[in-house]
Design brief:
- The structure is a single chain.
- This protein is an alpha+beta fold.
- The strands form three sheets. The protein has a three-stranded mixed sheet, with helices on one face. The chain has a two-stranded antiparallel sheet with strand order 3-4.
- 19% of the residues are buried.
Length: 176
Amino acid sequence: MRAREVFRRRSGIQSVWDFADPDHAGIGTVPYVRTPNLPASVIRVQKNPIAVQDGNFALEEGQCNQNGALTRCPDKPYHPENPTDTGYCGGWHRVLMPAHQSSTFTGESGLALTQFIVEAAAGERIPFQRAGHHGWLPAQQWQQYLEANGPAPDDKERQPSVRQGDRRNMCAALAI
């Protein structure tokens, strides 16, 4: 995975890794989406679009207090000795979170894989890597996030692109 991802980046090709296994080692380390683990025969005859279950993020904005949308202050470091300490600063934050966990999620059918591919190819959805997350976000929301939190770190500062994993894990890469 690492070699293929590096090759594509150098060639100016944007990859989207599609994982079926929610515990795959590549989740969160490369630009990815997660779709249901369906056999090809079901995919061919399925009338409903294939849903993107993970890797799709949304920008969440909220006031940092007990009644706000945020569960903890993103600027306050996590303390392993006191894991239930949430701590709030009273300010406003823009944070990235999985779309299915955001306050805008309605629980209805979310993003379909075909729609995602079209949006990513058109530049309307862009990959990001920030604060231990690696996924996709609408371009406008990414700009809003950068305005609030500053520019993305250089590639040299990023973590390695892949964790050690079993080569037999099911995944696929799409080049956009």
